[in-house]
Every structure is written in structure tokens, then in C-alpha cells.
Amino acid sequence: MDVEKIITELSYKAVRSSGAGGQNVNKVASKVVLTFNLRCSNALNLEQKARLEIKLAHRLTSDFNLILNCDEDRSQLKNKAIVTKRFLNLIKNSLQVPKIRKVTKIPKSVIRKRLNDKKNTAKIKANRKRPDLE
Fold first, then answer.
1. Which three-class secondary structure state does DSSP give residue 5?
2. Which H or E run includes 4?
3. CATH class of the 3-95 domain in this structure
4. How far apart are CA 67 and CA 29, in angstroms?
5. Nearest to 66 by CA among 29, 101, 41
6. How much is the pTM?
7. Which SUPFAM superfamilies does the record cross-reference, listed alphabetically (predicted)?
8. Which of 25, 71, 88, 122: CA 20 to 30 A from 17?
9. Residues 92-129: tens digit of each pLDDT
């Protein structure tokens, strides 16, 4: 994954933010909307694109666009930096291949110990009973 190349493929759009802020909200377009087209990307190979399609299926639009918003700050530049960082983290985490779990065999000593413990417990419980007087 080439970060520089991916950043050049991103498209940003500034929109008026909602919420508190008084006149600033009505006048300034500080909210940033980041759009990334997964299918048209040249920075990712086919295997990476397939993995991202599976991992980010719930976040992609029907034409495979990933859309992220940020209106945390009153500054458009800060919002752009935040949404770009969030996007890169999302892509990086989605591309990680999970480690394959190696199945290990239970050691014979552990099995033996468990069976001995079961026998001891059975003996303790058997000793609690009243003795037969026959």
C-alpha cells in the first residue's frame, strides 16, 4: 500500500457543518467529506481491493465509494487532516491479515493430571457416604 499514491486519489468536499457554532456554522463550510473510489484505485493491487471490499462492505456505497465525514473542529484544515488520518488508519487496519491459529495437541501429562484429579474427587465423594453394615 503506497500512502502517497492513495492520498492523491482522495477527493475532498467542504460542506456547511451542523450543530452549535452560531454565525460561523451558517457562513463557513468547515465540515469535510472524504470520498475514495475503491474500484478505480491504482495504489492498491487486486488482492488488497478484494480484502477491503470484504472488510469494509458495510461502509461502501453501491458503486464502491468509501465516504468519511469530519466536523469535529471549526477549522476546515484540521478537519481535513483528521479525516485523512482516520481514513489511513481504517485502510491500514482493514488490510492486516490475521494470524492463522496453530492447533496444538494437549500434552499427555495434562490429560493424566486431569484424570487423576477426577479420581481423587470421586474418592472424596465416595467417602462421604454411610458405610454399608452388611
1. helix
2. helix 3-9
3. alpha beta
4. 17
5. 41
6. 0.72
7. Release factor
8. 88
9. 999 998 899 999 999 999 999 999 999 999 999 999 98
